[in-house]
Specification:
seven-stranded antiparallel beta sheet, SH3 type barrels, alpha+beta, 2 helices, 7 strands
């Protein structure tokens, strides 16, 4: 399975602890494709998606067009996590470039990385 940054995948997130997003839900792959394909790295980084729209820079809105999502959703950047690739149940599609750019901006802001336009 070849996963690029911005791939939308269905992931089994359980078991979880506390306020972590749980259940089977769409997530967006945000780790580097080279790492994703390397067999030495059994995990990748994802951002869970929810149909409950959030407010603010950490919750970029996602459209269903082309991504495989069934409704307008938002990325929960504050729930960024690493998962074992075996948690992936299926691949839906890929985010459009403008939505991946908005997600990247939200990740820069959340992680305190240089280049955030909100700083």
């Amino acid at each position: 399975m070849i996963l690029s940054r911005g791939s939308v995948v269905l992931v089994e997130l359980d078991p979880t602890v506390g306020n972590e997003q749980r259940g089977v839900r769409p997530c967006i792959v945000v780790s580097d494709p080279v790492v994703n394909q390397d067999q030495r790295f059994p995990v990748l980084c994802v951002v869970p998606v929810t149909g409950t729209l959030g407010v603010g820079a950490l919750y970029p809105q996602l459209s269903p067009t082309g991504s495989g999502l069934t409704k307008v959703s938002c990325a929960l950047v504050d729930h960024l996590r690493s998962i074992d690739k075996r948690r992936i149940r299926r691949v839906y599609g890929v985010l459009p470039a403008n939505e991946l750019a908005a997600l990247d901006e939200a990740l820069r802001l959340f992680l305190g990385l240089p280049g955030s336009s909100a700083r």
